[in-house]
Amino acid sequence: DGRVAFVTFQGSASVGVFDLQRALSSGFGSGDVVGLIPVGPQPVGIAIPPDGKHAYVASDQADSSAPGVLSVIDVNHAEHHPGASSVIKKVPAGCKPNRIAFSASGQNLWVTAVGSNAVLGFSTAKLLSDPGHALLARVAVGQSPLGLAVISHGTRIVVADSNKVPQPGSTPNLAVVSVSKALARKPALLGYIRSGLQPRQFGVSHGTLLVANTKSAQIQAVPLGTLP
User: Fold this and answer.
1) pLDDT tens track of the chain, all 228 residues?
2) Cα separation, 101 vs 112, whole angstroms
3) What is d(CA 187, CA 134) in angstroms, rounded to the nearest whole number?
4) DSSP conformational letter for 129
5) Chain CA centroid to CA 25, Å
6) Spatial CB neighbours of 73, under 8 Å, sequence gap ≥ 6
C-alpha cells in the first residue's frame, strides 16, 4: 500500500522498516526507521509476492558451514509492530541464499544459492504450513549465481552467474532455466548466454532483458525472443 519500505541491512542482521512517505520527503535518514526486524546473519535479498501478506528475506549466514535461512515476515504485523515477533517462520535455504523472485501467482518462490551454484524453488504455502516439504526444485546453474528474474510469462527463469568467486574454467554468463521442467524435477537448464563481467541484477522492459554487469560497468540488453 506504499506505507512502508523494507530494507535489508546486511551488516546488522536485520531488516529496517521505513515510514516511506516521511523518508521520501526527508531523504531516508535514521529518524525514518520505525523499527528493526532481526533475521539471520547477512540478509541480502528481500521480496514480497503479489498478495502482499508476507515478505521473504534470504540470509546467507556469516558462517560458511551453516545453512542459509529464509525468514518469513508478517507484513501487516511488521508495519505496526516491527520487531522479532514479525518473523513467523525461519526455514533452511541452501548454501548462501542471495536473491529472491516469485512466480506471477506468488505460489512459488525462487532463490539463488551462491554457495552451491544453484537455483532453489519453494512452495510459498508450504514454507508456512510444512517447511520440511517446501523445497520443490533444485537446478544447478553456474558459478556464484546472484540475481534472477522470472520471464516469458512465467515459463523461464534467467540467472546471473556472476563468477565472483572464480574457479578454473568458469566464466560469467546468464543461465536460462525451464520452470516447468524444474518443478517436474527434470533436467531444466536450457542453455547459457554470454554476459559482461559479474552480472548481478535484471530488469525487463518492452520485450528486452536488461542486465547490470558490475565489473564491466555496463548495462547489457538481451531481446527476450533470443533466449533458449
Assistant:
1) 889 999 999 999 999 999 999 999 999 888 999 999 999 899 999 999 999 999 999 998 767 677 899 999 999 999 999 999 999 999 999 899 999 999 989 999 999 999 999 999 999 999 999 999 999 999 999 999 999 999 999 999 999 999 998 889 899 999 999 999 999 999 999 999 999 999 999 999 999 999 999 999 999 999 999 999
2) 9
3) 20
4) H
5) 28
6) 6, 15, 37, 39, 54, 55, 56, 57, 86, 87, 88
Beta strand extents in the chain (DSSP E only)? 4-9, 14-19, 33-38, 43-47, 54-59, 69-74, 87-92, 97-102, 108-113, 118-123, 135-140, 145-151, 156-161, 173-178, 189-194, 199-205, 208-213, 218-223
SS3 225: helix
Identify whether the C-beta of residue 201 lies closer than 8 Å to the C-beta of residue 218.
no
Nearest in space to 40 (alpha carbons), one of 18, 55, 62, 65: 62
| Residue 212 contacts residue 195 (beta carbons within 8 Å) | no
**What three-state secondary structure class fits 78?**
helix
Task: Please report where in the chains the cell 572464480 appears, as a residue.
Answer: 166
